[in-house]
Amino acid sequence: MMRDAAAASGLFRTLKEEHDNDVERVEVELLLEGIYRVYGFDFRSYAYASIKRRLWRRAQAEGLATLSALQDRVLHDPGCMDRLMLDLSIQVTSMFRDPTFFLSLRRKVVPSLRTYPFIRVWHAGCSTGEEVYSLAVLLKEEGLYARTRLYATDINETVIRGAKEGIFPLSKMQEYTLNYQRAGGLRSFSEYYTARYDGARFDTNLMENVVFSQHNLVTDGSFSEFHLILCRNVMIYFDRSLQNRVLKLFRDSLTKFGFLALGRKETLRHTDGEPWFVPFVSEEKIFRRVEQ
User: Fold this and answer.
1) Are residue 77 and residue 110 in the same domain, yes or no?
2) Which domain holds residue 240?
3) pLDDT band at 87 (very low <50, low <70, confident <90, very high)
4) What are the residues facing 231 on neighbouring strands?
5) 111: number of CA atoms within 13 Å, CB side?
6) How far apart are CA 256 and CA 80, in angstroms?
7) What percentage of the chain reaches a pLDDT higher than 90?
8) With contact defined as beta carbons under 8 Å apart, do 272 and 248 qualify?
9) What is the pLDDT of residues 116-145, one digit of tens each?
């Protein structure tokens, strides 16, 4: 009898967990649908586990017990939506992140870029701009910046405004300097910024040829033809269907034999993009578009 009771209790817990998970998924889907209809931001094809964690983080920060309560607040309070956007945006970045990647850009991609009279680069999902400034420094040192137009885009208008300021924590400069040196930097990194109080303001001439703009990879289309596209550590947050859509966007936005750079944990295997690109620097996830 005791075993039967324990088994029944265990079955009840299992059924309740399944019910709670089903309800939670419905809440997530309704919240994302509401955001799309009211604000026009489409997160419906983001990886479920990742988006759920970010939604709960905002719900708890708002002092809410359910995602349904978060939906009510988001739809009626644009300020809450602004705060949620910061949670949903990918903001894990640093200057010369993965130094060997930037070293490969310098040594293996730049020689091809030199062959073009004018170079267009798209940094998709640029977040707070650390990698944009890193790329600008690299292009200046290689003598290509003057004939380059660099487009830096992100879904979040708030982080775009911050990126334009070019001010980063002074406490990070030691780490960034080491990254810069490992990435093949040719000068003293401190030449590129001025220390003020707790911040490091980077030279404004690094941004002369940079265009910061809001762009949504989920809903927006191509806006130019590029020789190099960087979209690092963004697509890991997308489900497969959205990954395929974004890869098609990148294919259509690249020149013949243009370069696509992804993050270290990202892959083209088992995606629609597999036949569109060939590995160029495999270990650094740098690909080249092939002619179809």
Assistant:
1) no
2) 99-289
3) confident
4) 262
5) 4
6) 43
7) 77
8) yes
9) 999 999 999 999 999 999 999 999 999 999
Q: How many residues does the chain have?
A: 292
- Say if residue 66 is in the same domain as residue 137: no
d(CA 118, CA 253): 16
Beta bridge partners, 259, equal 228, 288
- What global pTM score does this model have? 0.83
DSSP at 207: G
Neighbouring C-beta atoms of residue 115, cutoff 10 Å: 8
DSSP 203: P
Tell me how many domains the chain contains: 2
pLDDT tens profile 88-120: 876 668 999 999 999 999 999 999 999 999 999
The string of DSSP letters for 102-154 reads HHHIIIIIHHHHTTSSSEEEEEES-TTSHHHHHHHHHHHHTT-GGGEEEEEEE
At 48, give phi and psi (nearest 5°): -60, -50
My answer on whether 141 and 257 are in the same domain is yes
Q: CA triplet 245, 45, 133: central angle to 5 degrees?
A: 70
DSSP 83: H
What SS3 class is residue 254?
Answer: strand
